[in-house]
Specification:
The strands form 3 sheets. The protein has a 3-stranded mixed sheet, with no helix packed on it. Strands 3-9-8 form a 3-stranded antiparallel sheet, with no helix packed on it. The chain is 52% helix and 11% strand. The chain starts with a helix and ends in a 5-residue tail after the last helix. The chain has 2 domains: 3-190; 201-324, no CATH class. The protein is built from 9 helices and 9 strands. A hairpin with a 5-residue loop joins β5 and β6 (269-273). With 332 residues, the chain is mainly alpha-helical. α2 packs antiparallel against α3 (62-82). The protein is elongated and about 75 Å long.
Length: 332
């Protein structure tokens, strides 16, 4: 063999050497996409699991959807990790895109009565789902590895004509970039959770036979156990899901407790009721709901504010005294 032909044969993509090189390179790319796709699905599932455990489990319908989402993400991630099938990769890509679609829908119009708010965790999960879609779609579009039948629909598409692979790759990249742009615009438009405007009148509503304090829209108000009469212990991510009620507020019918205000760490003014800083809950979508009551989140317990906090304290003391009397031994 002439020297120039021998050298040409050893170059990547040329001659016999190139034919041997391409399968090895394709195999490494296949493995990298598989690991990336599986890892991203599992990472998205972990974020949703944390969100489920820290509050979403209490939201009607949404809580069950979050739990199913977590199970599906971990399950598909494990299957992609151990399977080389293009159909499995395509299923994972479709799941990532569907999960992102649900998040965007909850930002735009709400989902089952729940409207999502802008949070760091939600943005991170969205970006991860876009990356998972790109990696898994690319994996599904790859031709089968040497020695395996190229039975996948996207694999057959890539093998169908010269240059088809580049078209598929460019299409995946374009869809991913467009999806990221839609995610960014949606998150920017959503903004943080809405707060009750200063000067609004508080009123009472009935929730499960209990009269509770509500804002002007009728949404249940809550108090946070770690708070003090002069300081709120809920800020940052906590305040995204538990929006503080802006002060000052006025008392409507049935509101008999003492209204006051405190200054939060960011300089804003928050309303208080009988010494408790007031909050709404992002998981309540309509009057008459109290999905945040008795939740242990963000470092403490949350309680609905009953119409008379003084009466609540008096009832608790009366119950404590009664229990003490029943515990005393009878005279012998």
């Amino acid at each position: 063999m002439p020297p120039e032909r021998s050298a040409l044969a050893g170059r990547p993509g040329s001659g016999i050497g190139g034919q041997q090189y391409r399968p090895r390179r394709r195999g490494r790319t296949h493995l990298a996409l598989r690991l990336a796709g599986a890892g991203l699905l599992i990472a998205a599932g972990a974020i949703h699991l944390d969100l489920y455990l820290t509050g979403y489990r209490s939201i009607p319908v949404i809580g069950w959807l979050f739990l199913l989402q977590v199970i599906a993400a971990f399950g598909l991630g494990a299957v992609v990790l151990v399977s080389a099938g293009s159909l499995t990769a395509a299923a994972g890509a479709a799941f990532a895109l569907a999960t992102l679609g649900g998040y965007l829908l909850s930002l735009w119009t709400g989902l089952f009565g729940f409207t999502e708010v802008r949070t760091t965790a939600g943005i991170a999960a969205g970006v991860i789902e876009v990356a998972a879609f790109a990696a898994l779609t690319g994996l599904a579009a790859m031709p089968a590895r040497r020695g395996r039948a190229d039975s996948g629909p996207l694999g057959r598409l890539r093998a169908g004509a010269p240059g088809t692979g580049r078209v598929v790759s460019a299409s995946v990249a374009a869809v991913s970039v467009a999806t990221l742009a839609v995610l960014g615009a949606s998150v920017a438009a959503a903004g943080p959770a809405a707060t009750t405007g200063a000067g609004s009148a508080l009123r009472t509503v009935r929730v499960s036979s209990v009269m509770v304090l509500a804002n002007a829209k009728g949404l249940t108000l809550y108090w946070f156990a770690p708070d003090t009469a002069t300081k709120s212990a809920c800020s940052g991510m906590c305040a995204s899901y538990w929006p503080p009620v802006k002060g000052p507020t006025t008392a409507g019918p049935g509101v008999t407790g003492k209204l006051a205000t405190i200054t939060r760490s960011d300089g804003s003014v928050q309303a208080t009721y009988d010494g408790h800083p007031l909050y709404t809950y992002a998981g309540d979508g309509a009057p008459g709901q109290a999905n945040g009551n008795e939740l242990n989140l963000n470092g403490g317990l949350w309680h609905e504010v009953t119409a008379s906090s003084r009466q609540r304290v008096a009832d608790a003391r009366s119950l404590w005294r009664s229990s003490r009397l029943t515990e005393q031994p009878e005279p012998g």
